[in-house]
């Protein structure tokens, strides 16, 4: 018998090595390299199709339908719904709500007359039935099967011919022709490729649920991300009841949109007013707190940035940020010390975004700086004040995009003041009740009497 060929594959990033080693050179993970059997195939006879390439202009775009999931938040993230024949991968930490969301989607689609096939390799049929009873009444054609063999999964799909398939999870699916264990890179690649080919050939949409690794990425990311049409992360902390759905790849829509859900006893519920969600319910008059008008895609919402500045007890001051880019925070601290003269070299700076959301938009720079200054001076900001602006390395405040919708959101929530970049003066809406303040640099911003009883 021919000896089976093997290769050593990192289970964290998918890097391949000719022999075993303790640490992966690509992702620096320890003890993640596993030996896997390579399937040996005979050279196939070359077959040439008589079909020739056609003009792109002659290709018809009719018949491309989107399935509305029944959740506006999810449809927004996916670009308007699920494209027929697309493969969507959703990843998240254990317990964040991936299976709950997928079952709720299945129940909504079945109520709307679609045929759904739910395949689970992690839970029994009784467990799924108990969870569905908590989420609501099952109506329509929602088929359930607990199976991990990819050939049996494809056979069931061919017999039922559903409109939508959910695989929970892709790490439990097993390809009989691959000698590696389920969940390994080889198994994930082989089973995902079979499902992608089936979806494209039959025009059936498939939802793949994927677990994340210790580093916070989907297992086998380089394999799966290139194979599927959309990759969606379900973010959330177990200490919060809110979940954020964020697309990092989408062939049929934007990757800038987010969806916000709340985990309740009856499943996931959409959050209609995210601005109130991310604003603190505490009393006004607290130093180090600033409200910023942020954007995620086309959605505006107000977030509260909290800062705490205190003398350091170490030789090197700390820069700690939750929900913000730590390197950006360190840059803005250096800017305050160099250009404004605020001595932060012996101060620890801690920053946090209320609600557990992560924001990397440059327009929150001005809010970060004002929160740090407010905490350092121990002087609260004025009540009902919102800000927006990107800060350059010379202290200039640069223009931000989509300013009218930011101002409209602050006006809707009853804010009184809004600090904006001077360069956005021409973009202002004419029917706002807000008192608008303008600044072209940090010095002019500090002269706007933004603080209560400034010292």
User: Main beta sheet: strand number and arrangement?
Assistant: 9 strands, mixed
Distance between the termini: 86 Å
Question: What is the count of DSSP helices, taking H or I runs of 4+ residues?
Answer: 11
Helical proportion, percent range: 25-40%
Number of strands: 23
Low-confidence stretches: none
Query: What would the CATH topology of the largest domain be?
Result: Rossmann fold
CATH class of the largest domain: Alpha Beta
| Global mean pLDDT | 85
- Shape from CA axes? globular
Structural class assignment:
alpha/beta
Number of domains: 3
Overall radius of gyration: 26 Å
- The assigned CATH architecture of the largest domain is 3-Layer(aba) Sandwich
Strand order of the largest sheet: 8-7-9-10-6-11-12-13-14
- Share of β-strand residues: 25-35%
Keyphrases for this structure?
single chain, alpha/beta, Rossmann fold, nine-stranded mixed beta sheet, seven-stranded mixed beta sheet, 11 helices, 25% helix, 27% strand
Task: Briefly summarize what is shown.
The chain has helices at 72-77, 98-111, 125-135, 150-160, 185-202, 221-227, 274-277, 326-340, 365-377, 403-412, 442-446; strands at residues 5-10, 16-17, 33-38, 66-67, 82-83, 87-92, 116-120, 142-146, 164-168, 205-211, 230-235, 242-250, 258-264, 267-270, 289-296, 299-311, 319-322, 347-353, 385-387, 390-391, 397-398, 417-421, 435-439.
């Amino acid at each position: 018998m021919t000896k089976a060929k093997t290769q050593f594959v990192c289970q964290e990033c998918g890097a391949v090595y000719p022999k075993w080693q303790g640490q992966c050179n690509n992702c620096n993970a320890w003890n993640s390299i596993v030996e896997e059997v390579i399937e040996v195939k005979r050279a196939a006879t070359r077959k040439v199709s008589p079909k020739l390439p056609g003009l792109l202009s002659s290709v018809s775009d009719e018949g491309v339908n989107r399935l509305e999931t029944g959740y506006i938040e999810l449809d927004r993230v996916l670009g308007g719904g699920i494209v027929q024949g697309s493969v969507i991968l959703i990843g998240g930490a254990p317990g964040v709500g991936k299976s709950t969301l997928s079952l709720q989607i299945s129940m909504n689609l079945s109520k709307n007359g679609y045929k759904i096939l739910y395949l689970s390799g992690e839970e029994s049929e009784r467990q799924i039935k108990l969870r569905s009873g908590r989420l609501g009444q099952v109506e329509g054609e929602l088929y359930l099967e607990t199976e991990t063999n990819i050939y049996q999964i494809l056979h069931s799909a061919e017999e039922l011919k559903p409109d939508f398939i959910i695989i929970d999870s892709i790490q439990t699916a097993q390809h009989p022709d691959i000698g590696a264990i389920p969940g390994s890179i080889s198994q994930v690649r082989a089973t995902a490729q079979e499902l992608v080919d089936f979806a494209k050939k039959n025009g059936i949409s498939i939802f793949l649920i994927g677990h994340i690794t210790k580093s916070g990425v989907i297992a086998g990311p380089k394999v799966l991300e290139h194979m599927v049409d959309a990759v969606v992360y379900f973010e959330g902390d177990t200490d919060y009841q809110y979940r954020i759905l964020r697309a990092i790849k989408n062939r049929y829509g934007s990757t800038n949109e987010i969806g916000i859900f709340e985990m309740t006893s009856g499943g996931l519920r959409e959050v209609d007013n995210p601005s109130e969600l991310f604003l603190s319910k505490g009393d006004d008059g607290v130093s180090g707190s600033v409200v910023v008008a942020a954007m995620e895609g086309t959605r505006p919402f107000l977030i509260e940035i909290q800062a705490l500045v205190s003398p350091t007890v170490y030789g090197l001051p700390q820069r700690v940020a939750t929900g913000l880019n730590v390197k950006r925070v360190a840059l803005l601290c250096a800017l305050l010390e160099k250009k404004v003269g605020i001595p932060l070299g012996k101060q620890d700076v801690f920053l946090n975004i209320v609600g557990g959301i992560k924001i990397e938009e440059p327009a929150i720079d001005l809010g970060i700086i004002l929160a740090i200054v407010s905490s350092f001076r121990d002087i609260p900001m004025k009540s009902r004040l919102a800000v927006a602006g990107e800060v350059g390395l010379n202290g200039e405040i640069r223009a931000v995009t989509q300013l009218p919708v930011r101002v409209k959101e602050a006006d809707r929530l009853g804010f009184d003041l809004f600090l904006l970049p001077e360069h956005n003066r021409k973009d202002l809406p004419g029917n706002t009740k807000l008192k608008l303040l303008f600044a072209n640099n940090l010095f002019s911003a500090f002269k706007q009497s933004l603080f209560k009883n400034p010292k």
